[in-house]
């Protein structure tokens, strides 16, 4: 109180402030108060109410006490803190600003009055402040930098409200917090104008599996007042070529399909050594995946030929060498006997006649190995897509896509 008084005096005349500073003459000929009559505050947050008053110095003797009360005048509870909020007071004005922390419905809302006490006297101002507490609608602010794979990035979440009340709990939720070593640091910063900023920082080395996952920041005030914000993470990553990429040959045409995903979307090229008249190329895009298909005559790309698929974006590139393989005959030509459907056996018998027993053994080994590879790859990609789907549906209504 003294500091506020001193401050007021200092504003008026830059003389040194001391506790025995004499009251300036000729101001505040009557009691008056300037304060908003109705104020709304969100549950969990705090409210600072700015207020000034004047008084007739002839009536009041120093020192006097400034008291905010809820309900009827003598009521000392809850104790309400008078704070300094206004920096430019008129010479006749004194400050009666106050702060209510940890707002809660049914407890903080009500009628607040102000009075001055000096000696055995008091003056109750007739104006009151009506405080209404609403549910919390402010959301935390999530600060997400552009994320890149293999790089450690720090995400920040700031709680709404700039209060010195009970420290809220800041929680993170999402795949990024479940699976990998990460660092979380919660902090409170006081700004030069007396605001308190509660924030949490979250650091992680991101990889492509975090792309498109939802990260949530949840703020909990006083155990049960909750507000949260969601962000769908965008992780930039170098292209990857999917195992489903392949080349096949039928009677007249050879077809190569290259499937690649990356962020930003990769561009697929085929360093074929063919002129553009020799082949047709089609490209389709679905989310972060590009599928490039080239078709050319079977005379230009023959069985066992190898073709390279190259996928690039600004973060890097990937390539895969595809061998032109025979299409399963059974799918295209039902007239062929069932024996021809089984490609490994067709190939195997050819191998026997051409290259002898040693080649057969080797070939079967290769076939078996490639098959097991193909199966693992397929299972992996299915798991991934079903996971991605589930994420999507759970967060459908809340995710934000920029
Ligand atoms: C303030 O709130 C009270 C109670 O909700 C209401 O009766 C009154 O009209 C409001 N006054 C103003 C100025 O908004
Ligand atoms: C492709 O298969 C290999 C070997 O099984 C595996 O290491 C790789 O992760 C797979 N790639 C993709 C994109 O599924
Ligand atoms: C490319 O497509 C055009 C039109 O569809 C067709 O006439 C041409 O034969 C195709 N070329 C090759 C190499 O497939
Ligand atoms: C290469 O392809 C031919 C058919 O075009 C086939 O007879 C032969 O077995 C294949 N060679 C190898 C090593 O796979
Ligand atoms: C991240 O690391 C993987 C594995 O070392 C690498 O293949 C990829 O290109 C890297 N990505 C970037 C953007 O450097
Ligand atoms: C050719 O296709 C068969 C069956 O689709 C597969 O088992 C084999 O690994 C493929 N070979 C190559 C070289 O891609």
Automatic annotation (TrEMBL):
The chain crosses the membrane at residues 345-369. Keywords: Membrane, Signal, Transmembrane, Transmembrane helix. Its main location: membrane. One of its GO terms (cellular component) is plasma membrane. Residues 140-232 form the Ig-like domain. Residues 1-17 form the signal peptide. One of its GO terms (molecular function) is sialic acid binding. The keyword Signal applies. It is found in: Membrane. PROSITE patterns: IG_LIKE (PS50835). GO terms for biological process: cell adhesion. It is a single-pass membrane protein. This is Sialic acid-binding Ig-like lectin 12. The lineage of its organism: Eukaryota, Metazoa, Chordata, Craniata, Vertebrata.
């Amino acid at each position: 109180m003294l500091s506020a008084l001193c401050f007021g005096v200092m504003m008026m005349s830059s003389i040194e402030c001391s506790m025995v500073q004499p009251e300036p003459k000729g101001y505040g000929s009557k009691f008056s108060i300037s304060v908003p009559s109705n104020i709304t505050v969100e549950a969990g947050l705090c409210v600072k109410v700015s207020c000034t008053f004047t008084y007739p110095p002839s009536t009041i003797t120093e020192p006097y006490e400034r008291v905010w009360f809820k309900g009827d005048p003598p009521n000392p509870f809850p104790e309400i803190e008078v704070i300094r909020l206004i920096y430019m007071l008129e010479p006749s004005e004194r400050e009666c600003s106050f702060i209510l922390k940890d707002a809660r419905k049914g407890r903080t809302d009500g009628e607040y009055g102000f009075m001055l006490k000096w000696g055995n006297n008091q003056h109750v101002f007739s104006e009151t402040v009506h405080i209404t507490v609403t549910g919390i609608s402010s959301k935390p602010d999530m600060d997400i930098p552009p994320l890149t794979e293999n790089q450690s990035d720090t995400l920040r979440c700031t709680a709404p409200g700039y209060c010195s009340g009970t420290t809220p709990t800041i929680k993170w939720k999402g795949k990024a917090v479940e699976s990998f070593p990460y660092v979380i640091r919660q902090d409170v910063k006081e700004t030069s104008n007396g605001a308190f900023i509660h924030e949490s920082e979250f650091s992680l080395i991101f990889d492509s599996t975090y792309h498109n996952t939802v990260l949530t920041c949840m703020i909990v005030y006083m155990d049960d007042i909750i507000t949260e914000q969601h962000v769908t993470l965008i992780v930039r990553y170098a292209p990857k070529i999917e195992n489903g990429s392949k080349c096949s040959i039928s009677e007249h045409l050879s077809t190569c399909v290259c499937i690649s995903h990356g962020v930003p979307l990769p561009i697929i090229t085929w360093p074929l050594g063919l002129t553009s008249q020799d082949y047709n190329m089609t490209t389709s895009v679905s989310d972060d995946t590009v599928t490039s298909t080239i078709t050319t005559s079977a005379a230009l790309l023959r069985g066992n030929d190898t073709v390279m698929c190259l996928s690039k974006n600004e973060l890097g590139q990937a390539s895969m060498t595809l061998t032109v393989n025979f299409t399963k005959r059974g799918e295209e030509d039902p007239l062929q006997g069932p024996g021809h459907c089984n490609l490994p056996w067709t190939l195997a018998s050819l191998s026997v006649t051409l290259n002898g027993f040693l080649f057969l053994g080797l070939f079967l080994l290769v076939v078996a190995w490639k098959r097991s590879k193909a199966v693992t790859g397929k299972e992996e990609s299915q798991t991934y897509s079903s996971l991605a789907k589930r994420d999507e549906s759970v967060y459908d209504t809340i995710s934000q896509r920029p």
